[in-house]
Task: structure prediction
Amino acid sequence: MSRRVQVIGAHSADFVWRAGGAVAKAVALGGAAEVVALSYGERGESGELWKQQDQTIENVKRIRHGEAERAAAHLGASFRCLDLGDYPLQIDTGALLQIADVIREFAPDVLITHTGTDPFNPDHPVAFAAVDRARSLAAGAGVQSAFATIKPPQLFLFEPHQPELCNFTPTVHVDITEVWDQKLAAMREMQAQQYLQSYYAQRGEQRGNHARRASGNQAVRYGESFQRVLPQVVAQL
Result:
């Protein structure tokens, strides 16, 4: 069944490392995908760019936008950035409503974001809290509302950089073997954070190994892992 997948990250590159394969796989199966960044990560996640002489915030944003847009295109997704600022990312009422509108507009079947704990990144838990709350608003919190609502999307958390410190327990492994080359191409676009490319290439192999062991499917070579937040409703086990 084709799915509408929406990824909302704190910074413009977050989706590539942690959910790029799942995005590409959804599109390959006939679905649609949108990537939303709450900020460009222009202050705290663009170290390579700031090494350039006479660099400016606006130029960093422009470069980061191009990187993310090209990366999303490799995966078959669209990209947009709300440009709310980073380090610190702060979500006021207006920003929260803006995020809810983005979710309502795309009406995803699956919504993916950060974990609620990350001791090394102050923006990631803020993004989680905002997306979690905006999701409830977009879905009307399960009751009839005075504004348009959507069917509640399933909520998944993508794998953080150090999962054991972020209360992350994988409950779903996605086989991304068929779209692995697309993910690699997307990661290569992120020149401002080149140092993460080899790390997440290794993580894809590791999670592929875990997926093989969990499923018995020896054809799985690469994987991505997620944590389901809401119960899955099924007709039978």
Remarks:
- The first strand starts at residue 4 and ends at 9.
- The chain has one domain: 4-228.
- The chain has a mean pLDDT of 95.
